[in-house]
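Entry:
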Amino acid sequence: MTYCVGLLLDAGMVLLSDTRTNAGLDNIATYTKMFAFEKPGERVVTILTAGSLSVTQTTMARLREAIEAPEASAESSIMLAPTMLKVAEIVGNTLAGVRSDIEGKMNAAKVTATASMILAGQRAGGTMRLFLIYPEGNFIEATEDTPFLQIGEHKYGKPILDRVVNPATSLADAQKAVLLSMDSTLRSNLSVGMPLDLAVIERDACRVTMRRRIEAGDADFAAMSEAWSQALRDGFARIAL
């Protein structure tokens, strides 16, 4: 399993994913689940993935193939699409097509073939947009009322996002929020694991303005985790029945 989260804020977008993929306790591997496509200053498209590795890898391969194809067009390439809505449609259709192709083979082996994605991006002259794309290819969009989207093992990390994130949240505080959201998930679910991939896309930059790989044992992340644990213990102790 995995955990990925994306925030849509006034100042930009913040994205975080883990890298663990497992097929049982004795078969654990690391794969990146964050993919960025850029024409700096013109457009940026970032995709986070969760679910069947065969589905997500094939979907990403087909999206890249469509970008590089000589006959690439606004209907087929996420780097030529006129709007982020059209990008979401292309990604959704590709994901649904891959899932349909693979599903029959996987069902014969009694294995589930499903995946979901978070799509974040902006094109020059357009607004920042954040979508959650379902296995069937349909999608929903983040709004001011719900400025974050999650896929994978999302339940453990949702409470802190519900309490602290709103469109006016700064990019610095947003990074702290998603990292603490991930920390809660790491503590509660063994199917989510380090390293972590963190990315920031500043408003109107049309490029990934910061990307960081956080390895197991990272001192800053460990200090943040311990500080959060201590804050929770202190807060718990102060509450009277």
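The chain has one domain: 3-236.
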